């Protein structure tokens, strides 16, 4: 039976980059006989314009029924001044929570050809390939009680609650161990167990679960040290699992090691590996409609989708290899361009990846 994907191109550069990702998807679908089918729905500003809400019922139902969702990006100045509760970004948060996407996977991969784009020395980052697994639906971002209150002495006090139940820790740990099994079998769990009880429990539960994955080497690190090690010697890491707050910060730190937001894909998975796949960047209104956006993050999100939801590793690898070949050819969109390379637009970059895929197959 065919597997179904819902494509949400979104706003700004979303439709431009999605066009190229779709060409790549069609190519591997044929090459590898994947039997994937897809439909298009509206999300974000495009949905507000058509239906008055950022996440129409039809989009949510289609996403619920699909095996995976592929998203471009949402938002833009056109919708910045409308009521907060129906802004484009609300549609994005709602679809993530409605689909219970608790595991956020953010790879930080640095193609050796782009080592100069990093703010770190090329020898420290060339070939970097880290996967950060961030718990996305719990922890201090959701814990109750929370708020700002006024104390008896009239001083205001802000407070949040960092809370994780065993089941929440267990399910994200399982995802991380299984991902480590598919990679280099090294998992680092990041906590602050010396100070925070919630992460003491995190560490205990992750350690208990390790017994079920004897082939994976588990280690632990305090978050302050992890932040330091990420810029000192990032290549020591394979998979990193951590809670919502630490994951938010560490994944951005790791992403910037690669120097380019236009290259970074992401996935958010539920308990059954159904996922929503999207580039890490936004809708880039400043360059929308100009045909210069880098489509590679979205194309690499397709590769993640094939790997994690559809278990099509060979097809995922082929896309990643094709992207490497295109970079080898010296083709660069303006965001990753440097002296001595060839500047190309969104469409030419997409076409080059398709051609590289076809050449790989021959
Ligand atoms: P942004 O990621 O859209 O853009 C930041 C900078 O990076 C801009 O200069 C942009 O031109 C550049 N950039 C981003 N993607 C690029 C690409 N593929 N190729 C080349 N350059 C690229 O972030 P922002 O400007 O803070 O936000 C713009 C809009 O996007 C806002 O409405 C914001 O709410 C929304 N947003 C959406 C998502 C999402 O849909 N997941 C994420 C972040 C921001």
Question: How would you describe what is shown here?
Answer:
With 362 residues, the protein is an alpha/beta fold. The protein folds into two domains: 1-104 and 283-362, Isopropylmalate Dehydrogenase, CATH 3.40.718; 129-257, 3-Layer(aba) Sandwich (Isopropylmalate Dehydrogenase), CATH 3.40.718.10. The protein is 41% helix and 20% strand. The protein is built from twelve helices and 14 strands. The strands form three sheets. Strands 2-1-3-12-11-4-5-10-8-9 form a ten-stranded mixed sheet, sandwiched between helices. It has a two-stranded antiparallel ribbon with strand order 6-7. Helix 1 (14-31) packs parallel to helix 12 (346-361) and helix 10 runs antiparallel to helix 11 (313-328). It is globular and about 65 Å long. The two termini are 28 Å apart. Residues 13, 17, 73-76, 89, 92, 261-262, 278, 281-287, 293-294, 297, 335 line the site of nicotinamide-adenine-dinucleotide (NAD).
